[in-house]
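> tool_call: predict_assembly(chains=two)
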Amino acid sequence: MLEFPRWKVWLIGIVVAIGVLLSVPSLIASTPLASHWPKWLPGYKINLGLDLAGGSHLLFEADSADMQKQRVQQMQDSVETELRHDPPIQVGDMSTAGGKLSFLVRDPTQVDAAVERMRNLTKPVALTGNRDWDVQVVDSTRVVLTPTPTGTAQALKDAMGVARDVVRRRIDPGGTREITVQTEGNNRVLVEVPGIDNPEELKKLVGQTARLEFKLVDLSANPEDVKAGRAPPGSEVLPMADGSGAIAVKRRVMVSGEQISKAQQSFDENGRPDIALTFDSTGARRFGRATQENVGKPFAIILDGKVLSFPTIEGPILGGSASITGNFTVQSANELAVSLQSGRLPVKLNVIEERSIGPDLGSDSIRKGAIASGVSIVAVIIFMLITYGRFGVYANIALVVNAFLILGLMAMFNATLTLPGIAGFILTIGAAVDANVLINERIREEIRRGRRMLDAVETGYREAMRAIFDANVTHVISASIMAYFGSGPVRGFAVVLLVGVVTSVFTAVYFTRMLVALWIRRARPRMLHI
Amino acid sequence: MKLLKLVPEGTNLDFMRWRNLALILSLIATVTSIGYTVYRGLNLGVDFVGGQLIRVSFEQPVDVEQLRSRVDAMHLGDAGVSSFGGPKTYQIRLPKPPGGDAAANSVATKVKQEITRDYPGAKIESVDTVSGKVSEELAGSSATAIALAMVGIALYIWFRFEWQFGVGALLTLAHDISMTLGFFAFTRLPVDLNVVAAFLTIVGYSLNDTVVIYDRIREDLRKYRRMAILPLINLSLNETLARTVVTSMTVLIALGVLMVIGPEVIFGLAIAIFLGVLIGTYSSIYISAPVLVWLGVKPDSFLKTDKDEAAEPETA
């Protein structure tokens, strides 16, 4: 028991010193002292969770029905383009019912050729050996393209990756804010933005797919048919964004949002907010040619399937820039500009979970949590002192060191402290003392049984260790399960418990043992007052 | 200095004398708790049933009835208004709107606008919106987590002790959890994600107590092979009683402080653990220990395991 080699004392001392040092930057983070912390010392800090720092947690889920619809539409576009190519194949009765694309081949001798060309449009899905679409012939002349499950899954996966990047660009165009944007599961995007006041703006930015298209208005359409929702072949009926009816537009896209290189909010000649667009070189060329060929005709500006406006082309627009007018406010024009600039979302995202915490509530929680932690540490210290005397002092030193070590370790791993985490901290303070209680009670017991002093201390530490070990394993089991299954705040609670188990075994067992051994060696007491 | 001894030296209480009475009482309490929880249901928070929770703080104290009628006038379904740590802070709870998630958004916006218009200086402190889908997942994963923690710990006890001890641990946990559930059903305190964290902590803490007692029973079983099981368990319980009381006191002190002056948001978590510690202390004495008697633990249960001792952790 008394043999406590010098290197062990040094080692324990160094670990404690490092722990304390690591915890200081987090403790002084919001005080003026922070600027005096020397640069050459480690500056790791504990992250504050959103419930403490204030901010928004938003979980979005991809609208998979919308995505499947989009895929069929895109396929339809490529099929139509492909069939027009030389030699053209005449088809009819194109349908997208039931999430499948099907059409009739007019000339029965061309069915095989059509199938062959459709097969070339499908792509293999990486590593699965499956293709993304199934091509079949039904009733000898109808070609049916069915999306395969692996193809749909792969498309979703690709879309989520793009969606994540787009969301990040929209929320944080400068790339300077400390935000979290990550995909969760196979169809979700988690967004966490600390310290914002208005999550509504955030939701609007992400909620807009921002699929922008320029299409020619179909002037040949019969207004009665348009009202009934019927469009001539090659055209479709789209609603107006302001709810004032619908118009027929050609299916073919003149230019789309993908060909925009820059979008920003500005004002038109009447001082109304609008959005100034600059096309990239392909976009500028296509827009120039389309406007050149269609002078005097109106074209529709379509956002997410709704027509914003349909100005008439007054002359060829060759400079590669255009502006979008509509019923905008400065704010909505600005939001749309940001959305267009960041590219369109490949899939519509819906909010399925939102947690927003105002910054005042967070700082109030920190203050109350800190006070509660301080008071409970003091209360436990007094209680231990009057119960165990000198051994209580050792347990208390261990307790304080333990508090520093928990903070230091969390800072080093850049862990996140949440509100339940503070509760976990306080609970750990209470429970960490348990190890010392076990040891001290055992020493008392052994002395009562008549063991000699040193023997009693040694037996106390040895016999208590078994129960301490088992008890801590049970804590590790429940905390690990919490960390695995829990979401945000609860995980924060589990992290503190786990860190606390490790540090408390170190401080309550090894550290106090060293203190006791050093004392006995130096003071050579005749008997223990415990 | 005279040291405090909460449990006087030489205490020798005959715990096991009351074991049948305690069993009957525990059984009645457990069955009542489960029955009441099933009958009355838990006041599940938005985390588990979906919906919205909006916390508002006002500059002036606001009358709860007035605020309630104001919220009712918005016709948002079965809305609930409750005070949250004082007359200036309230929680408004809204059910899941029928129109799906998009509708939830506009509802929250509407409430915020109307409240800030009617009460100048009112501040929206926080908004939680949970869709039906997410709440189902959260409920599922929480239930799985609690069940897994119980089974995992029971297996560990079995592995470290004997099967009787594993069964004892599991029964003890079932008792603690159902009592705490009953408490939440009775007080109508909202059950949210934090409370689940509390349940998992109770599982861990209650087992902590049980493990300490089991460890001593095992030690005494090896030491006093001729002693009858009842006096032996009594001896072990008395030997560990001081530790049980002192540790419970420190944890209860820490949690009591948290409950009284800590942040309101985690009151539910603090009170659940506080209660769990009380129940856990009782159950580790009156459930964990007697179960061993009924399951017929004998000194020779551990004769074989002597050779395993080398595998047990050594002090440095």
